[in-house]
Amino acid sequence: MSQLLFFTLSAMTILSALVVVFTRKPMYSVLSLIVCFFTIAGHYILLNAQFLAITHIIVYAGAIMVLFLFTVMLLNLNADSDVPKSGKLRIAATITAGMLFVTLLASIKSTTLGDFAFPPASDKGLVQHVGQRLFTDYLLPFEISSILFLSAMIGAVVLAKKEKH
Amino acid sequence: MIDWWLILDKVILIVVIFVVSLAIAAYSTYGERKIAAVIQDRIGPDRAGPWGILQPLADGGKFFLKEDITPKDADKFLFILGPSLFILTALMTSAIIPWGKSFYFGDHEFSLQVANLNVGILYLLAVVSIGGYGIMIGGWASNNKFALLGALRASSQMISYEVPMGMAIISIILMSNSLNLREIVDMQQGFHWNVFYQPLGFLIFLICAFAECNRAPFDLPESESELIGGYHTEYSSMKLGFFLFAEYINMFISSAIISCLFFGGYHFPGLDSLNMSPNIAAIVSICVLFGKIFFFIFFFMWVRWTLPRFRYDQLMRLGWKVLIPLSIFNVLATGAWLTFVK
User: Fold this and answer.
1) Which of residues 103-142 of B touch A (CB under 8 A)?
2) How far away is chain B from the Cα of A58, in angstroms, using its nearest Cα?
3) Mutate to test the interface with B, among A29, A54, A60 (most CBs of B within 10 A)
4) The predicted structure's pLDDT at residue B319
5) Is A132 found in the same domain as A74?
6) Quick one: chain B helix, strand, coil %, rounded to 5?
7) What mean pLDDT is predicted for residues A82-90?
8) Is residue A116 part of a domain?
9) ipTM, 2 decimals?
10) Would you call A62 and B123 a contact, using CB atoms and an 8 Å cutoff?
11) How many helices (H) and strands (E) does chain B have?
12) pLDDT at residue A95, as a whole number
């Protein structure tokens, strides 16, 4: 049952990720990225990590992608307003993408593919356990990252204020 | 391995909740028009059936029979996706609401909650945070400036009011030590309703619920005097019906959530001292919850016909400069109270 779900979800993830890249319409690209995030959240639920799944949806699908959609809507990007790319740009893009491809290929080759098996159901991903670990073993990194977020927020406010003067 | 009884239970419950949500949404439109009429000293709908009681059916029939127009330059697929997504997210939240105590048929327990998630409250926040997509997609796909403006207003309003709403919920979580909605409800057994311990949190949550539902005085996304119809300007027939329907479903679900989080859900003082058999107690608890829900639906309508609409800058100022600081203060005060006093 969960294997069937896993393969369905994986197919959907890959398909929606491909649509993000290949579609000519920015709006569809953003929307299929949202679908992609939902399928990844589905994978988390299969691993019994409910907290991670829900947080993933709240943060990525609920907050970040809304801002993406906002930008696309305001710029009103269309397929016909697509700027034609120059030859130089195309060559540069091919080289960069090719290099990334080689790196990925190398890293995939060096990993050994074990037997495909589902990890035994564990309750490690439940919110109680995640919270316990965060506030005991990983307290310092947790607090430091919260300070990082705070400074990012203050930075955004400062930048927004600057533009007025 | 697969528990067929469980699946059958859940399917029955989902169908019942779906039908009840639609029925309540339909009759809320009737209720709204009657309440508006009383407040404005009019009679209200009285043609279809006795006291106009069949008015929602007439309205629904009209929605189905009207011509369905799609604008020429609209994005066909997204134009249909918008209202569908909006009504889908409106219906999704009802999955985590505990509607009452369990029924018992012999040894078989029939739980009145579709999904008893241990991250129930976060699920609520997740659905709220994706709730704006329907409006945004619909407004953009219409290819109309007014619709786009309405959609932008709706989404920025929803993002802004999600933050204090989440903060108000955090203080509830602190009080009850759980993210599970049933546990939060059961915590308030007797008369220990959260509204007495979290009056400020309740006020913040209530205001945010109004803003998230796009209800007056925060109905700027569809303010007809500036934006014609807002995000649904180009919609007609049942697609428009979906948008309007979803608004009433949202109102119903928000009322249910407010009752569960702050007013004890299906509990009322003295419920346990009556010594009823479990099945009778279940029926009574459902009635109690729906009584609270109907009061809040009435409250939503009462406010709409009493308060004038905000201006957009006032709305944003209220959200960011008043509600967010207040909600942060509320979280800190709750934390301090739990640490030092209790």
Assistant:
1) 117-119, 122-123, 125-126, 128-130, 132-133, 136-137, 140
2) 5
3) A54
4) 85
5) no
6) 70, 0, 25
7) 75
8) no
9) 0.81
10) no
11) 14, 2
12) 93
Say what the pLDDT of residue A148 is: 94
Kindly indicate the confidence band of residue A163, based on its pLDDT and cuts at 50, 70 and 90: low
Q: Which domain holds residue A164?
A: 123-165
Domain closes at, from A20, A44, A78: A78
Distance separating alpha carbons of residues B305 and A53, to the nearest angstrom: 40
Residue among B129, B155, B179 minimizing CB distance to A70? B155
Q: Which residue in B232, B182, B190, B297 sits closest to B69, CA to CA?
A: B232
**Separation between Cα atoms, residue B261 and residue B250, nearest integer Å:** 16
Report yes or no on A109 lying in a domain: no
Confidence of residue A76 (pLDDT cuts 50, 70, 90): low
User: Does B151 reach chain A within 8 Å, measured CB to CB?
Assistant: yes
Q: Reduced to 3 states, what is the DSSP secondary structure of residue B109? A: strand
Does A154 lie at the interface with B, CB-CB under 8 angstroms? no
Is residue B172 a contact partner of residue B201, using CB atoms and an 8 Å limit?
A: yes
* Domain endpoint, select from A78, A108, A136: A78
Give percent of chain A above pLDDT 90.
25
Same domain, A2 and A69: yes
State how many domains chain A has.
2
